[in-house]
Amino acid sequence: xxxxxxxxxxxxxxxxxxxxxxxxxxxxxxxxxxxxxxxxxxxxxxxxxxxxxxxxxxxxxxxxxxxxxxxxxxxxxxxxxxxxxxxxxxxxxxxxxxxxxxxxxxxxxxxxxxxxxxxxxxxxxxxxxxxxxxxxxxxxxxxxxxxxxxxx
Length: 152
Hints:
The protein has helices at residues 9-38, 45-80, 86-113, 121-127, 130-145. By secondary structure, it is mostly helical. The radius of gyration is 18 Å and the shape is elongated. The two termini are 21 Å apart.
């Protein structure tokens, strides 16, 4: 692929994948943090420690990774003309849903920081599976139907 990225294309692609990995790690960690946080007594030192852990995860890994993934992903899509390809529309929809999940996680961390516990641990355990399912669907879409698809 040449496009406007030229020889930078493989480096931009590599950076995109690296930051997707960082983002996914944080999206797997945060709901697990919520489950442990729920087990801490409100106002306890442990509760305060979980609030700080969640805030650091958001500030240092989750939010920057999401922004970088989107910026690099859009650059890659524009470079390859992906916006005109059907597989990309599916990927984009799945990425939008995953980004919405990120938003939910950030919002839920804020609720926990305010002392609210609106969900049961069982629900949080189920929601913990969402990013894995979404990333699997994204990978299958890109590999099976994406730009290098050659299976008919």
